[in-house]
Amino acid sequence: MERITDHPVLEPEEKKKLRFTFEGKSLEALGDEVISSALFASGIKIFSYHKKDGSPQGIFCANGQCAQCAVVADGLPVKACVTKVREGMTVARLNGLPKMPSATGPAMSEQDAGAGGAEKNGAPRFPGQKGETCAQELGRVEEIEVDALIVGGGPAGLAAAAELGKLDVSTLIIDDKHKLGGKLVLQTHKFFGSVEDCFAGTRGIDIADKLEDQLKAYPSVKVWVNAACVAVFSDRRVGVVYNGGYYLVKPKAFISATGAREKTLAFEGNTLPGVYGAGAFQTLVNRDLVRPSKNLFIVGGGNVGLIAAYHALQAGIKVAGLIEAMDHCGGYKVHLDKIKRLGVPVYTSHTVVRAGGTTGLETVTVAQVDKNFKPLEGTEKTFAADTLLVAVGLNSVSEFHGQAVAFGMNAFVCGDAEEIAEASAAMFSGRITAHKVLKSLGVMTGPVPDFWFERLQTLKSRPGKTHESAVREHDKAVYPVLHCRQEIPCDPCATVCPKKSIKIPKSNMMAVPKFEGDCIGCYKCLLICPGLAVTIVDKRKDPKHPTVALPFEIGRGLVKKGDTVTLTDYEGAGLEKAQVTDVKDFKAENTLIVIAKTTSAVADRAAGLKLYEPQKPEKTGGGFSAMPDSAIICRCERISLGEIRKAIRAGVRDLNQLKAVTRAGMGACGAKTCASLIAGIYKSEGVDLKEVTALSQRPLFMEVPLGAFSNITCRTEEEEKASWSGF
Fold first, then answer.
1. Fewer CB within a 10 Å sphere, N or C end of the chain?
2. Class of 142-261+396-459 per CATH?
3. Is 646 exposed, middle or buried (0-12, 13-18, 19+ CB in 10 A)?
4. In sequence order, what are the beta bridge partners of 639?
5. Backbone φ and ψ of 269, nearest 5°
6. CA 28 to CA 176: how far, in whole Å?
7. Would you kindly state where each structural domain of the chain is located, as residue ranges?
8. Do 413 and 403 touch, CB atoms closer than 8 A?
9. Does 614 score more than 70 pLDDT?
10. Torsions phi, psi of 256, nearest 5?
11. How far apart are CA 75 and CA 462, in angstroms?
12. Spelled out in words, what is the top-level CATH class assigned to the domain 274-393?
């Protein structure tokens, strides 16, 4: 079983064990666990074989946005990533019936494909098969009126709900997951931003709880979890499926706080099982405590990719490397420095050109790119890896807001649904949006204060200038060294210092922190720093051989008192060997402090410990295409880049026509994963996107059982007879 039983931040809960079968084999799941995580915990990564060519299918988003993880559960097709395991559940692969190439598995026999073979090989049944009877009982569709409906229970939605609740506004907030918090529930690291405004210095998982707890004080705010918004209608009603029932909600104000979905890339082998989004990885590791990989590679040097690498190390997973197409990583430098200090190799000006393997990922081939991002032949490097995380940015989930605006609703949008930024900015965006709603409802008359907008702009700022390491200008015996040299919005170290000796101007949160004053060696700045970019040097006992206190979150027991470790500077360059004199465990902060004795020449430069030696890649020859025609663009229908290029070159400029001609965008996800890729192909073919007609977006935005719209309950013949027994 690939379960995480020891984690530096997360503590596994005791949960009820369930039994279910997959392809006839008995497996174990935990209570409230979704099918995809239970299968991964048992080492199963192939969920289906595609009907078009028999190619193996794994997960991609693990967020209900795509349909890559579809399986057959108790005879019905479901998304494995959002469907919980039930005791005794029978799960099978959703198998395509054409003969499969030998590279993807054994071909299906004609007998299997014949009578009775479809269900045997994972094809879904229809209700009423096998002589089942179904007595349908029509129910009433309940209509609900509220002042405000918030779709999305992430940081933006929760912050907006709290502001509305303060003024007793009737509010319904819905989320399609079992727990509020959005992506915060996947984040084990401490957050940046402002302590006062957005809980900076607190881990994402704890921020989610804090935001949810705030709502308990406001009785006017009603919460529905496991509730999906499926449609926005022209009569200004919103369709919601909640606990299997269908409701029509009529809000006076409609707030989309629906977040974002991950982008993907086109390259050879891009749909192999083992190639998936960084968010899916964090779901498996940090939410469900499943170890899905032994050795992974990451594409993308933004915050998502850098953080995923760090989360992998915390889960005991090796990181073979991380690449970024630009000449620098776009994420916060402190995130980059954290993984470089631990020994993760980072390659800028590189792109992925091939994912290799048969039934799953085995190798990742990357190449250097020129200034136009074109791969350079002869620069290829191949790494052994069983997982490739694609972390190349996010697209706003804006469908609901777009429809609400088109239908003339009093519509608002906040968080990543409006603009991709950090969670700290999303919280502030939600608060501002709530005040706009209050004004539209006549509850408040004054404008939103200007400084709120100024603070929001600061919180969503891109990283600024990177400064040289500060030169120490004092002779204190104990003092902090601030290795944070990039201008980013963050103030926890200055806020927490009891002596107020760490300075960040209130007028400029982006400023690099400075130490001016006295230090008592309390470790508070070290423990709260989201970037693990503060160390404490102590010369009080031995000025020539001081100690340096280093934050450490990778795992308890990896470094012990008496060990000899390799110190690194803040960018990961090796310094010297040092002996560990103590390891302090601050369990309330889930952070260890490793204290090592070093020399006065090194003490100020030491910022971390090198734990791992980087994997040496194999150099490979050319023979690749930067954008091969074989790369899959539409995952649902397995439509290739070559098929789409052919249609574009034939003059297709309407995405609805492209959909009709090629089937691209016709699949179960409704073009959620391929739309941005297709737009990029048009641009690469020299077509101005202004000339391209967008896809028509119509309800529904997700799959819904037809019976839900009339709240039909389906009863067996025995249940029907029992219902009449009292008459």
1. C
2. alpha beta
3. middle
4. 634
5. 80, 20
6. 25
7. 17-120, 142-261+396-459, 274-393, 478-609, 632-691
8. no
9. yes
10. -95, 115
11. 49
12. alpha beta
Contact 152/399 with Cβ under 8 angstroms?
no
CB 364 within 8 A of CB 385: yes
Q: What is the model's pTM? A: 0.90
Residue 372 phi/psi, 5-degree rounding, is: -100, 15
* Domain 632-691: CATH class, spelled out: mainly alpha
Assess contact for 161 and 150: CB atoms under 8 A. yes
Given a contact cutoff of 8 angstroms between Cβ atoms, the answer to whether 56 and 101 are in contact is no
CATH topology of domain 17-120: Ubiquitin-like (UB roll) (3.10.20)
Q: How far is CA 433 from the centre of its chain?
A: 24
What is the average per-residue pLDDT within 566-585? 96
As a whole number of angstroms, the distance between CA 264 and CA 394 comes to 9
- Same CATH topology for 274-393 and 632-691? no
Residue among 600, 602, 574 nearest 341 (CA): 574
Partners of 558 in the beta sheet? none
- Residue written as token pair 């804090």: 210
Strand partners, 94: 48
H or E element that contains 37: helix 35-41
Q: What are phi and psi of 692, to 5 degrees?
A: -100, 125
In this structure, are strands 70-73 and 17-22 parallel, antiparallel, or unpaired?
Answer: unpaired
How does the average pLDDT of the chain come out, rounded?
A: 90
CA distances from 679 to 523, 633, 645 (A): 50, 11, 11
The amino acid occupying position 417 is: A
SS3 224: strand
What does the pLDDT look like over 156-204, one tens digit per residue?
999 999 999 999 999 999 999 989 999 999 999 999 999 988 999 999 9
410-440 pLDDT tens trace: 999 999 999 999 999 999 999 999 999 999 9
CA angle 367, 368, 372 (to 5 degrees): 120
Which H or E element spans position 718? helix 717-723
What tokens does 648 get?
A: 């574009």
Among all chains, which residue has been given the structure tokens 């737009």?
A: 679
Q: How far from 52 is each of 48, 55, 96, 377, CA to CA, in Å?
A: 12, 8, 7, 33
> What is the identity of the amino acid at 134?
C
Q: How far is Cα 513 from Cα 511, in angstroms, rounded to an integer?
A: 6
Distance of CA 488 to the CA centre of its chain: 22
Q: Which long-range contacts (CB under 8 A, 24 or more apart) does 674-677 make?
A: 674/633, 674/634, 674/635, 674/636, 674/639, 675/395, 676/263, 676/395, 677/263, 677/264, 677/265, 677/266, 677/633
Is pLDDT of 123 > 70? no
Residue 32 DSSP SS3: coil
